[in-house]
Amino acid sequence: MKIFNFVKKFIFKYKSSLIVFLFFSIIGWLMSIIVPYITGNYIDLLLQSKDFKVIYDFTAKIILIGITTIFTSFIVSYTYVKIQTKSMTDLNFYVLDHVTKLPILYFKGVDSAYLNQRINSDSNTVVSFVLANMLDILTNALTIIFLAYISMRINAKLTLELMALIPLYIFLYFVFRKPLYIRGYELKEKQNEFFSKMNDNLQNVKVIKLNATFKVETERLNSAFEKMFNSLLRYTKVSYLFNSSNSMVTTIARVIIFFVGGMEIINGNLTIGDFTIISSYFSMMIGSVGYFLNLGKSYQDALVSYDRLRQILDEHQEINGTNRLEGIDTIELRNVSFAYDNSKKIIHDFNYEFKKGKIYCIVGYNGAGKSTLINVILGILVNYYSGEIYYNSIEIKGLDMYYIRRKIIGVTEQEPKLVNDTIINNLIYGVEVYDYKTIDKLLKDLNVNIDKFHEGLNTKLNEASSNISGGEKLKIAIARTFLKDPDVIVLDEPTSALDVVSIEKLKSMLTALKKEKIILIVTHNQEFLNIADEVIDLNRISKKVECLV
């Protein structure tokens, strides 16, 4: 029930398609019930009558039922795929949205390929389980009750002897329930780990080539495969034993049908047509009972996926308040400290106030905490620091920092990530208001020659943006930050891939913009120190920040 409650909001979102799916599924179920009954009566009528009208009537009924079944099967399959795909995607996006709002340190040591594969496969499993079984549970229950009633009316003795096997079916499920869950969970984990290793192999192809570590990578893949393969064998063994036990019960049922049924026919207590009906109906009942037992097995599989999704969703999201700002005039840090995993503090009792109209340069050796300080200021590490941070005298933990970073903060990272899309779509990524005149001016100011690209702004960047230079990539990222026209501009090592001319142009742009903005620059470049109003030297910090003004 908890799996159904978890998934229903994603499935019920498509009510009209769901109604069509349920309606035609019921029609298809009724057709499956009617055919054996009509067939049994037809056999008895043929044995009793030589009237060709019986054949014509039966043939017409079978044709009508066949056409109806084909039509309903198509509608059911089509709507199932439609609902299943959309619902699974919605759940997938729901979990991914939650993941993106988890504290940044959650991702430390997390394999992104493994996590993505896990979310995708588990979302598919739980949605498919609920959608496939929400009606089947009812129809299979009705099948057992309805067909048992009809069979009892035809021959109670044979029906009761057959139904005595049902408790054995149920017993077998409870024997295998826990082993199926344990082995199923283990298999899913090993599969995700194996596919993650395969993904790593493709992502690191350049490193593999440079170091010629083909054999090492093959050994890593083989090791992951062996773990997955052994897990698969263990799961297959338990699954086969469960299925074999069910097959044994089914074989016993067939023996009873043919032995007891044959005796009843010879004794005149059962017609051949009725024997056919009971035989068909009991096969359907066994199928329905088997469905409920396999439901137990598939439930264990779905429960594994549900528990793994729940494990992710139970992780607490990072702090994000509700208050919104439409502008930022000051950012103040009071006694701010930060350390990774209870290690030595990278930032200790940091006190500082950043004001609009100034350029601030943050300098320091590698590992001094420059990027960490930026992440603390921007609220990326909001769950982990101690002390207080204020935007316009409002504590950051009460602010909607998602809104603020989206609207009025612009950041260019040292190694900017561009999306696998066109240059223009990378420029306007996350930018809500823009015009092409401004874009052209920014690119010109940053010394970007778009004409060199065959399709200009519509040139598509390939994976990892390898069809443009590092400098062009950085300039596109800087242009995107400026196009956003934020109140706070953050540039992390903006000169790392720029030539001298581009650096001078960028300095001029920053100087022209600073009046209405707070500009933070992480840099080693002396040229930017020359335009800074204040320099924060993290090398000189012991217990409090020292500034070179």
Q: Key features?
A:
549 residues, alpha/beta, ABC transporter transmembrane region fold, Rossmann fold, 6-stranded mixed sheet, 4-stranded antiparallel sheet, disordered C terminus, ABC1_TM_dom, transmembrane helix, AAA+_ATPase, membrane
Please write out the topology.
Elements: H1 2-11, H2 15-48, H3 52-100, H4 112-154, H5 156-163, H6 166-203, H7 205-211, H8 214-266, H9 272-313, E1 330-338, E2 347-355, E3 358-363, H10 370-377, E4 386-391, E5 394-395, H11 401-408, E6 409-412, H12 423-427, H13 436-445, H14 470-483, E7 488-492, H15 500-513, E8 518-522, H16 526-529, E9 534-537, E10 547-548
Parallel strand pairs: 3-8, 3-9, 6-7, 7-8
Antiparallel strand pairs: 1-2, 1-4, 4-5, 9-10
Helix pairs in contact: 1-4, 2-3, 2-4, 2-9, 3-4, 4-5, 4-6, 4-9, 6-8, 6-9, 8-9, 13-14
GO cellular component, one term: plasma membrane
Pfam family, one: ABC_tran
GO molecular function: ABC-type transporter activity; ATP binding; ATP hydrolysis activity; ATPase-coupled lipid transmembrane transporter activity
Outline of the structure:
The chain is of the alpha/beta class.
Give the mean pLDDT: 86
- CATH architecture call of the largest domain: Up-down Bundle
User: What is the C-level CATH assignment of the largest domain?
Assistant: Mainly Alpha
Helices and strands, in order, run as HHHHHHHHHEEEHEEHEHHHEHEHEE
Radius of gyration: 34 Å
CATH H-level homologous superfamily name of the largest domain: ABC transporter type 1, transmembrane domain
Number of structural units classed as domains = 2
The major beta sheet can be summarized as: 6 strands, mixed
Regions with little confidence, pLDDT below 50 for 5+ residues: 542-549
Strand order of the largest sheet: 6-7-8-3-9-10
- The structural class is alpha/beta
User: What is the number of beta strands?
Assistant: 10
GO molecular function: ABC-type transporter activity; ATP binding; ATP hydrolysis activity; ATPase-coupled lipid transmembrane transporter activity
Subcellular location: Cell membrane
Transmembrane segments: 18-38, 58-81, 126-152, 158-176, 238-260, 272-293
Domain ABC transmembrane type-1: 19-301
